[in-house]
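Much of what follows relies on a compact textual record of a protein's fold. A record is reproduced here so that you can trace the correspondence yourselves:
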Amino acid sequence: MTTDDSHHDDASPDEDRRQSGEQWREFDAAAGDTASPVRADGGTEAEGADEATLDPWGSSTIADYRKLFEQFGIEEFDDLLPEVPNPHYLMRRGVIFGHRDYRPVAEAMRTGEDFAALSGFMPTGDPHIGHKLVFDEIIWHQRQGGDAYALIADLEAHSARGLTWEEIDEHATNYVLSLLALGFDPEDGTLYRQSDNREVQDLAFELGAEANFSELQAIYDFDGETDVSHMQSVVTQMADILYPQLDEPKPTVIPVGPDQDPHMRLARDLAARMRYFGVTEAFASFEADAAERTLLRQAYDARDDYAEEPDRPRCGEAADWLRENRQAPADALESVAAKLDEAGKEPLRPRIRFLDRNATDDAFEALIEAVSGEKRVYDEHVDAFDLERAEAEELARRVELDTGGYGFLPPSSIYHRFMTGLTGGKMSSSIPASHISLLDDPEDGYDKVKSATTGGRTTAEEQREKGGKADECPVYELYAYLLSGDDDEFATEVYEECVGGERLCGGCKEQAAELMTEFLEDHQEKREEWADRLDDLDIDLDSDRKRSGAD
């Protein structure tokens, strides 16, 4: 969930083809992706990239972002883009390429309902242009009317990275200054440190009761050498993710790089486990898993084909029909058929089921009272026959909140591509020439851009004839990710001139270097303005924590 130098130091965009002059969002079937000329997903596949592992503390490199859709269930952002009002240019250009369950956030924007955005920054080094992506995403959501939260993950930095508190304080100040200089409104948003937020730590304690070592071992590859503080930092991050909902449930988005997806999957699981009630579809008195419910729905929909009384199909009849007519995984088919056989003459009938997960006795009784219409009450669930699913979800949440529960909504996430290093390959804080720090002297920023690797041809003549390879160019990424700002027309112009052979690398880098100089000068001027106002912020950037021997 946090952004630190390793997370955004690494980049390996995929090899999607792009064509100049095409209309926005046009689908390129051959490439399997949208082909907008300003989309910033060019570049070469990273050698040795691990396509199947996402490590929040490692040095993640993504060989092919499309693999994330297949392997981890991340959804394509392009499919959602038309539903987002006034989308940020990072969304329009495909830099933000994926999401988990962002639709509730987009709907809240459209309807004027409450929503929130949160991300954390691990203060392990200077903020750089990779971190700016997350800064911009938080600020954009704030400007769309969301409650914005930005946190310094100092506990994580100390436990997972081993930084001293003095180092953390220095880096935290620099992160906060850049966030403010880029436009974060501290009066309308929330800034905090993990170590100073008692509410987050209390929530982490409660969430920790719903997780265990075996689970963290499976997700994060923890072992017997993993220290307890590192494990504690995980549940603290889970608390950070859910913190915006502590007073009231609301759609909440966490903008991150894809390496942070393990945190998001765990946070969504824990949000569900903390709920008093689960709400699901059911067809009979027995419990069924998702695969079994699919078969039950099919049997109910086909009741005219087999039931002696189609208005009242019996479970035993449904079992016989399934065995004779359905092609399904053998385990699921036999399991649900056996349950139907045991139910015998019980009617197969759709209903909404409220499952008792963590409800107190008072909450369960309140739920029974709140369910209107026909219902059946069992020891650990309540079946309602006159409620729609959405209505039931809202009722369960209202009862939970009224009886002392959290009522968390599953947190959403959006994922952005990693930036390619200026020297090619991954961007790394250990290779100064590969990245531009937001603290770099503007002249150094100019020099780094001028020295950057490009996607140009071997000679100017070849470039004029064949065009440049903008999709493989770190300098073009600078235009698409940062230097063009909100000006899509300018980003398109740079792209088309490059691939059309009109733009040569020397002039392109000169223009980019000048724009980078202007950006750094402006950014650092604004940082200086905010530096005099830090004491007015509701965040303590000077830790008084005792230093351990490890420090």
